[in-house]
Amino acid sequence: MKRKLAVAVGLAAVASLTLAACSGDDSPSESSGPVTLTLSGWSLETTPEFQTLADGFHEENPDITIELKEYDPSEYNTLVTADLAAGVGPDIITQKEVKYVTTFQEGGQLMDVSDVELPDGIAGADSYKVDGVSYAVPYRNDSWVLFYNKAMFDAAGVDYPDGSWTWDDYADAAAALKAGGAPYGAYTHRWQSVIQGFANSQETQGDGVLSGDYGYMKSFYERALQMQNDGSMVDFNTSSANQLTYQGEFGKQDAAMMPMGTWYVATLIAQQASGDSDTFDWGIAPIPQLDSSTTDEPVTFGDPTGFGINANIDSSKVDAAKAFLAYAAGEKGASSLAAIGITPALTNDAVVDTYFSVEGAPTDELSKFAWSTHVVYPENPTSSKTAAIQGILGDMHTAIMSGSTSVDDAISQAEDRVKNEVGLD
Amino acid sequence: MSALLAPETEAEGLRKLGDPRPRDTRPVSTGRHVARVIGYVVLVVASVGVLMPFFWMVTSSLKEPNDVFSIPLQWLPDVPQWSNYAEIWFESGMLTWLRNTLILSVAVTFLQLLTGSFAAYGFARMRFPGRDWLFLVYIATIAVPWQSYMIPQFILLSNLKVSNTLWAIILLQAFGAFGVFLMKQYYETIPEELSEAARLDGLSEYAIWRRIMLPLSVPALASLGLLTFVNTWNDYLGPLIYLRDPSLWTVQLGLKSFVSNLFDTNYALLFAGLTISVIPIAIIFTLGQRYFVEGIATSGLKG
Amino acid sequence: MTTAVAPQTDAPPVTPRQRRRSRMKLRNALIGWSFILPNFAGFALLTLVPVLILFYMSFTNWNVFGKADFIGIANFQRLIGDGSFRTAVVNTLYYSVMHIPLTLVVSLGLALLLNTKLRGVRFFRTAAFFPYITSIVAIAMVWNLMFSPDYGPVNEILRFIGIQDPPGWLTSTEWAMPAVVIVSTWRDMGYYMILFLAGLQTIPRELHEAARVDGANVWQRFTNVTLPGLRPTTFFVTVMLTINSFKIFDLILVMTDGGPGQATLVLSQFIYRKGFEESQFGYASAASVALFFLCLIVTLVQFLINKRRNA
């Protein structure tokens, strides 16, 4: 037995040596010739943004080629983590979710990119700053708006959103739509962010998640429960039992209104063209507000998507990688993204015009206003605690929305768990 | 219930090992008739409950994507969309995926049966110090969730340069403790006297394993083979981590990727693909089941 | 030759014999190892080494990217105070206590039923295995539909037979776990049925015949012939079933994702969340080690009971 144990421990030692060996064997070689950079992406066929940016950048810098490395979209974080741990990560690491940025940063996987120049007015750059140092640059920043079906509003005789709505107006409209014959006035998808993101941005200017105090969400949950009880909104349990998709609920005209991120604009246009969605007139409006004081510049939430540089990249490639980051975040990158229906992190008049010139896009002024004018607070603050807290708030969300726990109890349970399991500063 | 509790299977496949047994000629009583009827009723009700999700999957594979989930529940499509099958077959890499999955499943099953039954003989019939402890270690590692040591394993295999090859999955699955444990348990039911007799005849331990234990454990080998095959066939997380090159993808991996590459998850297409992927297993099972339900008459060898 | 391999011989105190015996012992050990080695080599490298690394990592604050500082038993101390971990342990045990006996009974019953010569039994055997080979995604979706509190067929049947207030199943904190147990039993029964079927083939038919001749009724034959003959299989199935119940993961993930609230949060999921969602791989490793010892203790108890029964 003892000998066996010794053998086993010996094997483990060998293994950990190999583990350690893998992390530091890139030899810097200075070369001025053509450079190839690898870039991580997902669902390349339906997420053309990576190829678009890679091609546009290559055109400007013929010496630098960007090679895409495809990952599974739902397991993106797991796979990139595994690759980085094994020392085979991409040169440029796309930051799909802000809540994992600190993981990569604390693990020493991201290079300081503070010296990459960003254009004025770009949104979301702060999400990548830790202690004042930038570890990635944003290139895309979706935010949440209200999608509505004009045909269903017309049929029910309800006025379109006019940009002045509060949440009470929204609830009234949903009830009126239902009364006017729509199957449902509104659809709220099952994600926690559809309730919590709005509460967090409008009640606490984005500071709520890390506060450990979640009483501010109460009124938002009560309104949602009220709406699902009176039938003006699809209820949470039905939605999860039937695995309803938001594309199906809005696209098949089951619900007349839906709060959703701007990424759905491109999807809806594509699905209407392909026939997967019904064809109807629709528009986007600013998300309802707490009161009329913020309707000039509506408050909403959204997280950026960004590019970071692998800290273990070959030193000869660093300049090329930084040049790519600057291109993707800059005006040229933004225009090329807008042209394919992506919401870039940088918006200006030219970008707005490009975006809405896509065939099938809404043409009304309110849609343009909703897309381009807003104060966006991050859904996930950049902190090593965010992922754990969001997990707890996710449990709270299903407890409340399924009707199995009262709002007050669920909130106080979540507050206790955050205090005990995560700890606050 | 007497008809149900008494095993009455015939040892057709291995008749030469057993006593030739005349057919049962006892008169069938009314009690047995009633038991039979009850047995059938139970079976029919049970198989409806058992096949229903599969039935739903097949009918859903013939629906339009946004009709798969609807209120109220819709069991049959209005117009069957056979094009879903055409689309998944012709527009995805289905053939490549099937080929990869088949290679993996066959290789893993073969290695697992071979090394598992070989090691099981060592554990079941050989005595040496530390044997029981080693065996306990084998079993205990089954208890560690794979997700928790997946990363160290991935780093190890990456350094051995086998990640992103089919070898990664073969190595990963082929040496599992499950097969060793299953075969050991089965060997222990085989009378020791058979081995003793063989030793008297001068057979080595290897020959005893090959010529006595293996033929006698066909039902166990068949069930182990089937379960290993199915597990490898349906594995998702392993191939996801290790097989990055699309030309190496398995059916489960390819389907998921194909479907999520559409604008949103198209469940009708996914289910069409999954239905296709179930067919080979169903065929293997139907053809192979006689191997694990037909008895091996060990008594015949005792004399 | 024959005496050489015979496992037990009496030990007379004669020295040359003793020497021969120890040589035989060595030889036996070598032969034993030669059987085990091909499997063990792969097992040690691919499973044992990563598991040992995991054990080490449970004493560190490893964040997956190389740097792992040794922090002693801090992770385990934290586990003890962690409310979610306690919830996960309780839920896992609750699930196992329901799932293990239920699956044992159902799969053994199925195996007995399908080990007969009834017409069409081949079809039913295939059917019973279908839940196991049907995609878990499809299974989760169908059962979620079935359990839908307002529209689901399950509650429609319950209302039809007069139960006015049927449970909310997956939407209720009390009933979510029983619903998961129903589905997992339904899914696993075909799997364990196959193992029982293989075990049933080892029972010599003559034993049944002899018992029948002695006038034993069906139940007596079942308890005196079938059950004892199945003991090695039952042991195997019980151990595997226990371990797999303690490790339940994918079905919960697709059916409830631990909800509503934390009603169905189980250990494997806790480990996955801590590791991959919160990047605390050291802490997740500690939870895995806890799960490992939980399984080890239960398995050891089962081993000892099995040994005593066999003796």
TrEMBL record, chain A:
Signal peptide stretch: 1-20
Transmembrane segments: none
Subcellular location: Cell envelope
Source organism superkingdom: Bacteria
SUPFAM superfamilies in the cross-refs: Periplasmic binding protein-like II (SSF53850)
One of the Pfam families matching this protein, by short name: SBP_bac_1
InterPro entries, per the entry: Bact_solute-bd_prot1, SBP
Keywords recorded for this protein, A-Z: Signal, Transport
Similarity section: Belongs to the bacterial solute-binding protein 1 family.
UniProt-recorded name of the protein: Extracellular solute-binding protein
Automatic annotation (TrEMBL), chain B:
Secretion signal span: none
All residue ranges annotated as the ABC transmembrane type-1 domain in the record: 98-288
SUPFAM superfamilies registered for this protein in UniProt: MetI-like
InterPro entries xrefs: MetI-like, MetI-like_sf
Highest taxon above the source species: Bacteria
Transmembrane spans: 37-58, 102-121, 133-155, 167-187, 208-230, 267-287
Predominant location: membrane
Membrane topology: Multi-pass membrane protein
Compartments, as annotated in UniProt: Cell membrane
Keywords assigned: Cell membrane, Membrane, Transmembrane, Transmembrane helix, Transport
Keyword Membrane: yes
Pfam family membership, one: BPD_transp_1
Family: Belongs to the binding-protein-dependent transport system permease family.
Protein name according to UniProt: Carbohydrate ABC transporter permease
Organism: Protaetiibacter mangrovi
TrEMBL record, chain C:
Domain ABC transmembrane type-1: 89-302
Subcellular location: Cell membrane
CDD domains, per database record: TM_PBP2
SUPFAM superfamilies, sorted: MetI-like
Pfam families associated with the record: BPD_transp_1 (PF00528)
Transmembrane segments: 29-57, 93-114, 126-146, 175-198, 235-255, 281-305
Signal peptide: none
Membrane topology value: Multi-pass membrane protein
Stretches assigned to coiled coil: none
Gene3D superfamilies: MetI-like (1.10.3720.10)
Keywords attached to this entry: Cell membrane, Membrane, Transmembrane, Transmembrane helix, Transport
Sequence similarity: Belongs to the binding-protein-dependent transport system permease family.
The protein's name in its UniProt record: Sugar ABC transporter permease
Organism expressing this protein natively: Protaetiibacter mangrovi
